[in-house]
Amino acid sequence: MSGYTKRQWVTLAVFSLAQLCNAICVSLQAPFYPAEAEKKGATASQYGLVFGVFELTVFLVSPIYGKYMSSWGPKFINNAGIFTVSVMCILFGFLDRMNDTSLFIGFSFAIRIVEAMGNAAFVTSAFSIIAKEFPKNVGSAFATMETFFGLGLIIGPTVGGALYELGGYTLPFVSLGGLLLGAAVMTSCLLPSTGADAAPEALGSRGQFLAALKLPSIVLMCLALLSSSISIGFMQATLEPHLRVLHLSPFKVGLMFVVSGSMYALTAPCWGSLCDKVIPPRIITTLGTVMVVIAFTFVGPMPFLPLETTLPLCIGALVVHGIGFGAVLVSTFSGCHRDVIANGFPDDLGTYGLVSGIWTSTFALGCFIGPSVGGVLMDLVGFKWASVCIAALHALVATALGIFICYKGSGREMMHVSIHESLSQTKEERQSLLSHPDECDSTYGSAGSSQENLPCIP
Question: Between vectors from CA 105 to CA 98 and to CA 390, what angle results, nearest 5°?
Fold first, then answer.
């Protein structure tokens, strides 16, 4: 980072601020919206879907923004996305004026869908601009942005709960939505136009996407990531109703949401360092999945355990969940990237974008399934038995990963596969990465190769 130019520092600072405010706005309602929705007559299934539809929309519309990025321009999509999120956040703050249940839930859905479209626009365009501005430091730049996004997810519920306690339902959305609106204006003024208006580099074809998903290691990593994102989405929609027996204030409930996120933010750099230098990502993914099982065993706690729901027990379980969740998130991205390169994909920006796309789509899908299914389970069997279902899912994934490691190995030989080194190389230099004469007669050529020219899959 010491070698960044002034232009790069400005770009990174602008995006980091926008990521922080964006995350605050999309997460601030977690401590109090379920209770507010129940006052209007909504069920857990209904408000669970309100949380889940956000991620489903991101999952569906992100590829569309990628397709039209070159014609609309990344900077325009970025500015429009941030502006949309800020306006929708402010509008969400006036839903308490609607007393009819159907009207309240219907407008909640509509606003969250449009807000998610804006969020997807911002995230998709940010990748294109960062990739252009940081050809030699794509990973570091993205890690910085994700750190600020994680901080926003921590701050959002805490500040949201505090403002709700201070001034009611509308205050959190209007004040924090206004803050993001200010960040949108700053982004529009300070974001460099040159490069931000350039068409993004191709991020991989449909054939490459399918080829990557034919790798068993990639499928298992995606299943681990999917189950972990389901767990965090489940917590977002159901933790507040579960904690009501403890009679906590909205501010204290917001602090409970901070526990898991803060542990993720604190431990993620450590997991990243371990993935790079010490422990193979597959091992860390398995370890993280087991830790999530332990967390869901005690956060309820499970109904067949002779334990009662207590504040220290919930906090301890959330601490373990945050550490395990961070292990899975970091190791799955690192492991997927090394696996595809080791199996014949070139070490270039196209492959980086391909893995990032798979990872982001899988995470968004899990964040949709988590609150949606969680709300239904909450209505049908309650939080404790629902937590058994989430723990069982992770136990199955951990078992599958363990069997794969025993059969195929831990992947230690891939730990030193170089990544990002070719991002700043010339086209001719990158071509040298594409030949694999000792493997099969594949003629896989570049990030945009056709389906007939795919890497051989062992």
Answer: 140
